Automatic annotation (TrEMBL):
Protein name (record): Reverse transcriptase zinc-binding domain-containing protein
A Pfam family of this chain: zf-RVT
Species, as recorded: Dipteronia sinensis
Reverse transcriptase zinc-binding domain residues: 60-144
Amino acid sequence: MTQVFQKRPKVSSIVHSDQWVWPCSMLIDLLEIKNHMPSYNPNSSLEDCIKWLPTPDGIYSVASTMASLKTPHPLVPWFELVWYSHNIPRMSFIFWLAIRGRLSMLDRVHLYNPRVGTLCVLCSSSPETHAHLFFECAYSKVIWSHLKDMCGRPWNGHSWPRFIVWAAQRWKGKSPSIVVKKLCLAVVVYYI
Ligand SMILES: [Zn+2]
């Protein structure tokens, strides 16, 4: 038991004659380790070693850490609208946040700080939401109106989410004209 509580204990401290021998009185942390111990018995003839379980060879790598932390999710239909080989990362990132509705619009800020008003700072006529700022605001409509010929779609009467779905369905592939459309979309959202 005294061996287990020494400053630098080893696994061998709790191994005797190829059996796990746990101290009678254990700390809560030790109990948790005991509950997660493998069912096989130890081999006293082998040296203690450290193995990184996420990799088959037991050797640590940053890539395996990232892979083990990630939870797989299905691809969203607008994936290629945001992430593509010629994208501008900082603009794609802002565009991605806008699609997810995670930018700090005043309607969201107001939830955390009620002293902050919600009126759009560009037109002062409606609450500043993602849908308003990027699609409904008079300021944004002027910008979009200059791009409507390029996109082949009028802007009035269509919501921000519906436009994203529309663009994701049509702007597929790697042709220069498609890439330019996607770049313009990200640039407009970024600068608005
Ligand atoms: Zn506005």
